[in-house]
Amino acid sequence: SKCGSSRQPPRARGCERWAHTCWQNLLVGRASAMSFYRALSKALIKNYAAQRAVIPWYQQEGVQLSQFEAWVKDNVYPVWFKFVKGPYERYQYEHTVADLRAYGLMFDDAHNNNEPIVERAIELLPHDLAVGRYRRMMRAFEMNTKKTHLPVEEQNYDPMVPYLAPFIEEAKFQMQEEQELLNFHPWDRRLYSGPTTGFGETTPNSTFSCW
After folding, report:
1. With contact defined as beta carbons under 8 Å apart, do 155 and 99 qualify?
2. What is the pLDDT along the chain (211 residues), one digit of tens a residue?
3. Which residues contact 64 (CB under 8 A, 6 or more apart)?
4. Which domains does the chain have, with CATH numbers?
5. Beta strand spans in the chain (E)
6. Cys bridge to 8: 2, 12, 144, 187, which one at CB 3.0-4.6 A?
């Protein structure tokens, strides 16, 4: 009988074929989109590698200067550096050192901790350096609030010791390795999948575009 038959009605079979066709088209569309992004990523990586291998102009050897450029370099620039650029840079350096010593800070304490590389470097700090950095900053905040400064007898230190420099370099290598493992694929970077941008920072809502 018709009631006991396992065959589907023609309308149901047509709907099933239509759904199967739509699913195939969707898969083909996704495959084409992914192949486009993959090709784009490969092209960007190839171009970036070619540009990265170029030696900057200020590091190139054997660059021939014109007669005017050579004359300026030999006669004008020494005078400019002696009377203008040198004293100005020395004043800026001494002014920065005096400001840091007044609050007992190091120069690396003033870096923006919301910047991805600096944030990663701070995470890599050993316990003693991290605690010292935190205490110096809290002491500076308190002195700034109380309109005071560090005692003069305690300002005899060099604030330009780059204690954060090796950890910044390690953070650069780590982030570069992570990007190479992801192969710069947009579908693996997970941009704005949460309260972070996906460009390297780990603190939630730390950038303006994630507020």
Report:
1. no
2. 444 444 555 555 555 666 666 666 555 555 555 577 677 777 777 776 666 667 777 777 777 889 999 999 999 999 999 999 999 999 999 999 999 999 999 999 999 988 889 999 999 999 999 999 999 999 999 999 999 999 999 999 999 999 999 999 999 999 888 877 776 555 555 677 778 887 777 888 888 888 7
3. none
4. 69-210 (1.10.1090.10)
5. none
6. 12
Q: Can you say how many angstroms the Cα of residue 54 is from the centroid of all Cα atoms in its chain?
A: 21
Q: How far apart are CA 105 and CA 139, in angstroms?
A: 9
Burial group, residue 111, by CB count within 10 angstroms (0-12, 13-18, 19+): middle
Q: How many residues make up the chain in this entry? A: 211
Reported for 187-195, long-range contacts at CB under 8 A and 24+ positions apart, including other chains, are 187/34, 187/37
Cα 69 from Cα 155, distance rounded (Å)? 44
Query: Which pTM does this prediction carry?
Result: 0.62
Q: How many CA atoms lie within 13 A of 67 on its CB side?
A: 0
